[in-house]
Amino acid sequence: MVVLILSITGLICGSFVNALVWRIHEQSMLSKKDIAKRKEISVLRGRSMCPGCKHQLSIVDLIPVISWILLKGRCRYCKKTISVQYPLVELLTAILFSLSYILWPSSIHGVVIFEFIIWCMLLTGFMALAVYDLRWYILPNRIVYPLFILAILISFAPIVSHAGIKSTIVDALIGMAIGGGLFYVLFVASNGSWIGGGDVRLGGLLGLIVGGPFAAMLMLMTASGVGTLIAVPLVMAGKAKRNTRIPFGPLLIVGAIVAELFAASIKHWSLHLFS
User: Fold this and answer.
1) Which of 53, 88, 103 is the last residue of a domain?
2) I need a surface site. Which of 80, 190, 191, 215 has the fewest CB within 10 A?
3) Domain range holding 177?
4) Would the pLDDT of 65 be above 80?
């Protein structure tokens, strides 16, 4: 039952991600003087509309995944193609919510329920950042900065139940330093040509969330490994060159999810193996 509820919630949050990404990008293209248009596509006050013809959508057009299937991937009003991004993001968000519950490294009760709720909110933000970075190679601060508030909440929540204040704060700061520090060095050394400032902020944010040196390093290693697995076949197939730009934000997010869910068990397994 819990998995079903989380799946439905994930579908809804995924639908919100699609709307959020589109609205933030559309607003970034407008002049500050376009007050009427900015209100029309406001994240909080704007009505749902077709990205193509801007026709307001009804409830039957907004059912996650199902509406896209019933409409055969086309707008009901202008008949323009609706990107497959929309159902994919909705499904992936639902899968991440459910898998996080199944794979959560500790029993979900007490203060851990609060941590898990914050984690699902973070996953929603991660999905928005990943989609935005994949489409426009930007990690907008309008999404990154609010996530820092959630990151602080989930990082320091263990203090309430079982962890010492000092160790929790130290782990959070170490994770943040490793996650953001490496990218800051690369950013400064290359004057921003190797990596963007958004990746520095995202690295620090994710390092703060996963906490501790082991989890932060696992996050970076996973991101690099996944990036290599993607880039090498593309280069070998001639679909990419050595200097082809690959957005690193989604890779970092994958690394952070792996670290959050598996760092504790991997660390325990490693210690047991070498002992």
Assistant:
1) 103
2) 191
3) 106-275
4) yes
Token pair in block for residue 58: 């009804």
122/66 same-domain check: no
- Classify the C-alpha dihedral 13-16-17-20 as positive or negative: negative
Contacts within 8 Å (CB) and 24+ apart, 176-179: 176/204, 176/205, 176/207, 176/208, 177/207, 178/207, 178/213, 178/216, 178/217, 178/220, 179/203, 179/204, 179/205, 179/206, 179/207, 179/208, 179/210, 179/216, 179/219, 179/220
Three-state secondary structure call for residue 273:
helix
Q: Are 157 and 266 members of one domain?
A: yes
The answer to whether 228 touches 104, Cβ cutoff 8 Å, is no
Q: Establish how many alpha carbons lie within 13 A of residue 215's alpha carbon, considering only the half-sphere containing its beta carbon.
A: 28
103, 135, 150 - which closes a domain: 103
Side chain identity, residue 102: I
Sign of CA dihedral 214, 215, 218, 224: negative
pTM summary value: 0.93
One domain, residues 79 and 167: no
Helix ranges restricted to H, the chain = 2-28, 35-40, 66-70, 85-103, 111-136, 141-156, 158-161, 165-189, 197-210, 213-236, 249-274
Which residue do the tokens 């203060």 mark? 111
Per-residue tokens: 247:
């957005």
- pLDDT tens track for 218-252: 999 999 999 999 988 888 888 877 777 789 999 99
Nearest to 115 by CA among 244, 232, 209, 246: 209
